[in-house]
Amino acid sequence: MGLVPMHLLNEPQKMLNMISQRQECLSDNIANMHTKGYKRKDVDFSQYLNSGISSRIEANLVEKYGPSPIASGTYGGQNITTEEELAKMQENYMLYNVAVRRLSSTITEIKTALNVSANG
After folding, report:
1. Does 1 fall in a domain?
2. Do residues 30 and 85 lie in contact, with contact meaning Cβ atoms separated by under 8 Å?
3. b/e 56-93 (16+ beta carbons within 10 angstroms → b)
4. Whether the Cβ atoms of residue 53 and residue 11 lie closer than 8 Å to each other
5. Tens digit of pLDDT for each residue in 70-80?
6. End-to-end distance of the chain based on CA atoms, in angstroms?
7. DSSP string, the chain
């Protein structure tokens, strides 16, 4: 095992990957909103959250989003509105900020541990 416990970086990396997938789905929804037969897509964070990681923010995400990583459906009818998708993009941006702060905090903790072990 190396000096840096890479498993600590896996959780924020998974979250950032899912946020990126969700951004792609929301962009596709806007791009295809006038395409006949297109069904709205979204990313569900519950699969990630069921991997044993828990916090208040993540528990709230489970309540908000559906049962699969990428879910297709009509979600309240055939109409996709730009306003709703942009609001979801704003939510996604906030989730991104939380994930980046968590990653930054993890990196800071690893640096501190490395400094303590080097000086101790």
Report:
1. no
2. yes
3. eebeebbeebeeebebeeebeeeebeeebbeebeeebe
4. yes
5. 454 544 445 78
6. 20
7. --SS-THHHHHHHHHHHHHHHHHHHHHHHHHTTTSTT--EEEE-SHHHHTTS---HHHHHHHHHS-SSSEEEE-SSSS---HHHHHHHHHHHHHHHHHHHHHHHHHHHHHHHHHHHHHH-
The values of phi and psi at residue 14, to 5°, are -60, -45
Q: Supply the pTM of this predicted model.
A: 0.65
Give the domain range for residue 90.
7-119
- Yes or no: say if 18 and 61 are a contact pair by the CB < 8 Å rule: no
User: Could you give the CA distance from residue 114 to residue 110 in angstroms, rounded to a whole number?
Assistant: 6
Number of domains in the chain: 1
Q: Per-residue confidence at 81, pLDDT binned at 50, 70, 90?
A: confident
Q: Is the confidence at residue 41, as pLDDT, over 50?
A: yes
Residue 104 belongs to some domain of the structure:
yes
CB atoms within 10 A of CB 49: 21
Token pair listed for 18: 């899912």
